[in-house]
Design a protein that fits this description.
single chain; mainly alpha; flat
């Protein structure tokens, strides 16, 4: 949200639509969506393929967060 406030834009069309519909309350939608998926992954964590997916998802999110921190630091 901070990057959007600084003039950034959302590339993902689904997320962009949610931002247009929910406005400043978009974070509630995003938090809910991510939370449901995390809960589902935790409930299915005993499956072999899920144990392989979780570190990859964490790595993707880490890269996204680091990229966003970089964007904010150089603004």
């Amino acid at each position: 949200m901070m990057i959007l406030d600084y003039g950034g834009w959302e590339v993902n069309p689904v997320v962009r639509s949610a931002i247009e519909v929910y406005g400043d309350h978009f974070w509630i939608w995003k938090f809910s969506l991510v939370s449901v998926n995390v809960i589902l992954l935790c409930l299915h964590s005993k499956f072999r393929y899920v144990r392989k997916i979780i570190p990859g998802i964490c790595l993707v999110y880490l890269c996204i967060v680091l990229y966003q921190i970089k964007l904010m630091a150089f603004h």
